[in-house]
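Bug: token stream looks shifted between consecutive jobs. Job 1:
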Amino acid sequence: MKESIQSICIFCGSRSGLDKKYIKIAIEMGHLLAKNNIKLVYGGTTIGLMGQLADAALEHEGKVEGVIPQLLFPKEAPHPKITKLHITHSMHARKQKMYDLSDAFIALPGGLGTLDELFEILTWSQIKIHQKPIGMLNVDGYFDGIIQFLDTAVKQEFVKPSHRKLLIIGQTPEEIIKKIKRKKR
């Protein structure tokens, strides 16, 4: 296992959301990754929070690798300026490639795709496919309902407390990166 975080996969929306704070946080995250020389692995497109995140990392000379399934063309155009683009044959192959390229994972606000990616990577950790850190950036309570669901699932004994602890929660990009680096040690 690598001792340091060299790449982080960010799961986030292909839409920007109603409030501009989500764009702001995606930009802050992109800048922070580049500043810390951490490669961004993400969904590979120019749209939504994904595009804002990639642009922000590139703006600060960060390395950015995108992974996009062929089936999303032309709906989600690949980002033309990223360091490297991987095109996969399916969504499942996309998630596997993102996993292979990453030392850790963070979910930013997003929709069903973001939740699908987050919960699959959590499940992989639960069944010991990997031990990579997994975080969630809970911007102004965006994920409060998900956090409450997980806590209820623990109380009702559908989720073990040790599995609930696999998900690291942070309120700011700086906080979540620090927590993930600590967990990696």
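Job 2, same session, no restart:
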Amino acid sequence: MPPFPFYHLIVYAPVTHAQLVRDALAEAGAGRIGHYDSCSFSMHGTGRFRPLKGAKPAMGTTGKLEEVEEERIEVVIPSASKRKVREILDAVKNAHPYEEPAIHLLPMMDGG
């Protein structure tokens, strides 16, 4: 067994696109725990960002600070296959409306 059998993936998405991101995660194989799939946790909050020169923002205006109602979406993913991890990350990026989505991938000591 690898030292970290799972990763904890966290992604922030606008509320308007949160279900699309959750669906993409589940379809790619994230959020599978034992005999369950599509497992995730979400929390509402406010995301802030300022698109800089050269950005192509899906929301907001270059040079102006923006606030967007977002969901923090959390899932576990197995770390055994680097190819599978890459597929899941690609699925999130393809479903996400932001040019630069905030995605965190953290090793987990215990997956359950």
